[in-house]
C-alpha cells in the first residue's frame, strides 16, 4: 500500500469504514452536530481535528472514499470499491503464518507451475512465500512445518493463480534433520 503510511490516520479511518461500511458525519438531530463538536473539543485538540478532516479529504481525492450529501442534508462518507481493495491489500500485506509451540510432525509442501503469461504473479507469489517463512526446496517447491492452508488459499487467490498451486501435507521428508534445522525444530521431538 505505497499510497499512504500503513499506520496513518487515513488508514485507520479507512479500516474503520471497511468494518462498518458507512460513517455519518452529521445527523438529522440539530443537537447531534453540537454534541459531536463538543466531543471533538473534549477529546481532540484543533490539530487532531484538522488531521482527521485532512485524512477524510485525502481519501476522497484518492478515490478511496466518497463524500456524499443526503437528501436531508446529512453528510455521509462511504468507502469505495477502490478503498475496499486497498484494505484487502493492506490485510494481505500484514498476513502472518501461525507458529505453534509444538510441531505436529507434518510438513506443508507447496508446489506450483505458473504459466509464463503470469510470470509477475509467480514471482510475487514466491516472494510472499519467502516473506511468510517458507523455505524453498526447489524452484517451485516450498515447505513450511505448520498448518497454513487458509493463508495459502488467500495468497494464491490474491495472485490469481489458484489452479496453478497445490498444497500437500507430508509426514516424511528426505534429509529431515536438514529441513528441521531450517525451522529450528528440535530433532528429538515434535517441539521447537
Tell me what you see in this structure:
By secondary structure, the chain is α+β, with helices and mostly antiparallel strands. The chain has two domains: 9-92, Arc Repressor Mutant, subunit A; 96-182, Alpha-Beta Plaits, CATH 3.30.70.240. Helices cover 46% and strands 17% of the residues. It has seven helices and seven strands; from the N terminus they run αβααββαβαββαβα. The protein has helices at 9-20, 30-43, 46-62, 81-94, 119-132, 149-158, 176-182; strands spanning 22-24, 65-69, 75-79, 107-112, 135-138, 141-144, 165-170. It has a four-stranded antiparallel beta sheet, with helices on one face. The protein has a three-stranded antiparallel beta sheet with strand order 1-3-2. The model is unreliable at 26-37 (pLDDT under 50).
User: What does the main sheet amount to?
Assistant: 4 strands, antiparallel
CATH level-1 class of the largest domain: Alpha Beta
Q: Indicate the low-confidence ranges by residue numbers.
A: 26-37
Task: List the total number of helices.
Answer: 7
**Number of DSSP-assigned strands:** 7
Radius of gyration: 23 Å
Write a concise synopsis of the structure shown.
With 192 residues, this protein is α+β, with helices and mostly antiparallel strands. The chain has helices at 9-20, 30-43, 46-62, 81-94, 119-132, 149-158, 176-182; strands at residues 22-24, 65-69, 75-79, 107-112, 135-138, 141-144, 165-170.
Amino acid at each position: 500500500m505505497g499510497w499512504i503510511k500503513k499506520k496513518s490516520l487515513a488508514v485507520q479511518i479507512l479500516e474503520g469504514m471497511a468494518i462498518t461500511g458507512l460513517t455519518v458525519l452529521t445527523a438529522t438531530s440539530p443537537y447531534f452536530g453540537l454534541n459531536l463538536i463538543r466531543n471533538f473539543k473534549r477529546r481532540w485538540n484543533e490539530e487532531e481535528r484538522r488531521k482527521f478532516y485532512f485524512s477524510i479529504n485525502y481519501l476522497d481525492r484518492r478515490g478511496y472514499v466518497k463524500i456524499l450529501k443526503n437528501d436531508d442534508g446529512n453528510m455521509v462518507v462511504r468507502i469505495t470499491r477502490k478503498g475496499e481493495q486497498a484494505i484487502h491489500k493492506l490485510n494481505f500485506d500484514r498476513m502472518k503464518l501461525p507458529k505453534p509451540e509444538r510441531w505436529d510432525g507434518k510438513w506443508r509442501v507447496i508446489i506450483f507451475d505458473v504459466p509464463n503469461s503470469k510470470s509477475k504473479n509467480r514471482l510475487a507469489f514466491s516472494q510472499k512465500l519467502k516473506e511468510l517463512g517458507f523455505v524453498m526446496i526447489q524452484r517451485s517447491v516450498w515447505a513450511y512445518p505448520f498448518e497454513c492452508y487458509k493463508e495459502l488459499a488467500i495468497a494464491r487467490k490474491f495472485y490469481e493463480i489458484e489452479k496453478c498451486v497445490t498444497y500437500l501435507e507430508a509426514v516424511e521428508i528426505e534429509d529431515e534433520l536438514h529441513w528441521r534445522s531450517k525451522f529450528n525444530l528440535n530433532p528429538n521431538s515434535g517441539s521447537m
